[in-house]
Amino acid sequence: MKMIVDFEECIKDSPRFRAALEDVEGDVTELEQKLDKLVKLCIGMIDAGKAFCAANKQFMHGIRDLAQYSNKDQVIESSLTRFSDSLQEMIKYHTILFDQAQRSIKTQLQTFVKEDLKKFKDAKKQFDKVSEEKENALVKNAQVQKAKQHEVEEATHILEATRKCFRHVALDYVLQINVLQSKRRSEILKSMLSFMYAHLAFFHQGYDLFSELEPYMKDLGAQLDCLVGDAAKEKRDMELKHSTIQQKDFSNDDYKLECNVDAANGIVMEGYLFKRASNAFKTWNRKKPDHTRRWFSIQNNQLVYQKKFKENPTIVVEDLRLCTVKHCEDIERRFCFEVVSPTKSCILQADSEKLRQAWIKAVQTSIATAYREKGDEAEKADKNPLISINSPLSDSKENLVKGESALRRVLCIPGNFYCCDCGLPDPCWASINLGITLCIECSGIHRSLGVHFSKVRSLTLDTWEPELLKLMCELGNDVINGIYEARIDKMGVKKPLHGCQRQEKEAYIKSKYVEKKFVDKSSSLEGCKKRSVKKKQGSSLSAADKGPASESLNRTPSKTSVKSNDSGIQFSTEVSQEGLAGTTSSNSLFDQDSDKKHDKRDSTVFLEPDLINPLPGPRLYQASFEGNLPAMAEALAHGAEVNWVNTKDSNSTPLIQAVHGGSLVTCEFLLQNGAHVNNRDIKGRGPLHHATVLGHTGQVCLFLKRGANQHANDEDGKDPLTIAIEAANADIVTLLRLARMNEEMRESEGLYGQPGDETYQDIFRDFSHMASNNPEKLNRFHQPDSPKT
């Protein structure tokens, strides 16, 4: 290394030394300015990079939204999804690049400026001070008179001491200069080399990523060429068809008859007909004829009509075998005919005589066909009874349980066929913590509220856990609207329809769920119980007609006795065995919860002294034990804290009460609404402890999936695994040990936040399905009595 300033010249303090110092000091000042400028530019680059990554991330989300919108087109959805995943990886690489730039340029050079250059400045200050003192000593020594011997000696001693100090400080200063000049080369090169290696890694990662994507892009390009060719061919075909149809005579009734048959879908005849009103006036509504014109069709041996395509068809004749058809010549209108059934008659009008004859013939043909089909089915059933077992009618229940989608199951609940907030038919989204169905636009507004108000999930795209599906089937739009829209009529607020502006819907939904303006604050717990019991009784009455898809959980209302004591009002609830046990069936998703059984726990709940209108927290607490989801939803709407602690009942929470109530779906409802799975009572027992003590296997599985801490000890020093081993409950011991093993495996492999291996997930998935669909398989062990709290 070549020295910038020579040590010998330093001792001499020659003009060359001073000139060298002046050059070095100017160079260091300029170096500091350049480094400060470079650090500021690096900070600006990093900030711009972060802004770029944020904008790129928004762009990537836009691509994913477009892919989700195009879910009916497999090619577009798959390609956009894969491209968005690649862009997501590139965003990660960009983030790593900017982090490396911050470490290599900003942090490293700032450290060099603040530490090494600061040492140089401190050494310079010391050198300048000592140099000045030396000059003063030289001047004083030169000015002393020879006659004053004492002053001569004193000046000589001061000069010697000052020169000695100057040599030490000057040598240190020169050393600092030479070290700084050497170190700045290594620091600058090291930081820049690190920065360039970060770029090298970034472009290598991008190259590798797109090298893997390139074959797919080439295949997609080939498909695109085919698509362009197909689109051109389809365009030519459509232009030809357009020209052919344009040349047809649309006034001819024969053409209309050709268009009125759809044999592939079982439609014998379809088309527009005028329908005379069935009221007392028997009018045709001449002012607005479109009010009486409907799209009629004959299908599945029924005569139905609808005004709009998305509307549910209205059945005019449920079974054509029971009706007859005839001409109507005794009324003022032309081309009319009458369809007569045992309970009513319907007068219809065609557009021409030829169409009237075609409709009459189609109805008569359908009547004859219906008779023949029913006769053939009866004859086959008599010859071979096994056919009735394998027929589609007997398969409907099996398909409902095992093969039907979440969409159809949830839409079977009363009120769920229309969006809960705007009334649009056929909703495909749901809010799982509220238990309602939503259209796609309202679901987007619900997402903007935040997950603490509404958790949105697709009924068609997402995978549904059985307990979540049961939760949706326990509530429904009618129940929730009865709570959150209780005062909407009194307030004179108009509920927005699906055709309204998005801003109007957003304001209404925010007022409904966030501000809760339409909740009836004066309603009592008893009112909520009556509504829920009435709803459940109605559901059970219609279950026989609608089949298993409309069955809901029925519970006998609890008997509540009121006692007074010094601490307030004590509500003592004795839950009947029928209410807790229910009716069990292993073939329906809507059966009783897996662990719902008679629980001998003393469910005494100490509430606040307000008998007329108990506080929302105690109301939620009581309803959680009873498994009354409508009452729980109403308590939450009234402001109940989901993690409310009953200090007069061993610091128990609504989630712990739900465990003792034995309802799996009640626990899921509380967890989806923000209940803490690890809150413990005064004995140090959380929901997982209580579920283990009671032997509720389904609840144990649920809490473990929701992140319950199985290592927590109660006041006796026992964790859930110890309790399960003492109770000899093999299923719960298996679940706890498997969860613990999976946790240890993830920690050892650094897989924090990941669910674990597929075996672990499959076993927990099997237990979840068993708890919801086949609860009797989990009731293999003695269920211990709950200890009184």
Automatic annotation (TrEMBL):
Annotated GO CC locations: endosome membrane; plasma membrane
Record keywords, A-Z: ANK repeat, Cell membrane, Coiled coil, Endosome, GTPase activation, Membrane, Metal-binding, Repeat, Zinc, Zinc-finger
Annotated region (Disordered), positions in chain: 529-602
Domain Arf-GAP: 404-526
Metal-binding found in the keyword field: yes
UniProt domain PH: residue ranges: 266-368
One term of GO molecular function: zinc ion binding
Membrane topology field: Peripheral membrane protein
Positions annotated as ANK repeat: 650-682, 683-715
Polar residues biased stretches: 551-591
Name of this protein: Arf-GAP with coiled-coil, ANK repeat and PH domain-containing protein
Compartment annotation: Cell membrane; Endosome membrane
Free-text comment about domains: The BAR domain mediates homodimerization, it can neither bind membrane nor impart curvature, but instead requires the neighboring PH domain to achieve these functions.
Documented activity regulation: GAP activity stimulated by phosphatidylinositol 4,5-bisphosphate (PIP2) and phosphatidic acid.
Pfam families: Ank_2, ArfGap, BAR_3, PH
Source species taxonomy: Eukaryota, Metazoa, Chordata, Craniata, Vertebrata
Feature: compositional bias, Basic and acidic residues: 593-602
Chain's role: GTPase-activating protein for the ADP ribosylation factor family.
